[in-house]
Write a structure and sequence with these properties.
Layout lengths: L2 H15 L10 H13 L4 H21 L10 H14 L3 H14 L1 H25 L2
Helix pairs in contact: 1-2, 1-3, 1-4, 2-6, 3-4, 3-5
Pfam families: DUF7079
Protein name: DUF7079 domain-containing protein
């Protein structure tokens, strides 16, 4: 897959994961919409979490710590450009080490969102298996 196609495939994922970083409480409808986008992406949960960690988290981690963080959504063009830049660095060992250090202290701020996504994905898989194997 070309770099452009890879980036285009990731943009909707970056958009919905960025909502985990907003200074607002996500609602059921938000989780429904986010989980549908993630499930439709074709990536498994571990790949999606890695995208968060190495592509979205480096860009938006400061918003988690801000007293007056962004609450109404990030500019998509800015988000895409910033995530693409870190996507290109994601395999650099120093970059990964630095991000893991930050994540060690900040993951708790996103953990509940990922638990919610995992539960919704498991439920969807369970329901689809029940429908195909009655």
């Amino acid at each position: 897959m070309t770099l452009n196609k890879t980036i285009e495939r990731r943009k909707p994922i970056w958009n919905v994961i960025s909502e985990f970083y907003l200074d607002t409480e996500l609602q059921e409808a938000d989780y429904d919409r986010i989980s549908k986008t993630l499930m439709a992406s074709g990536f498994d949960i571990e790949e999606l979490k890695a995208m968060d960690l190495y592509e979205v988290f480096p860009v938006l981690k400061e918003n988690l710590l801000s007293a007056a963080g962004v609450w109404n959504g990030f500019d998509e063009n800015w988000l895409h450009e910033a995530c693409e830049k870190v996507y290109l660095k994601r395999k650099n060992r120093f970059f990964r080490w630095k991000i893991m250090c930050y994540n060690r202290f900040l993951y708790w701020m996103r953990k509940d969102h990922w638990i919610e996504m995992e539960n919704r994905i498991k439920m969807r898989d369970y329901n689809s298996n029940r429908c195909t194997n009655p």
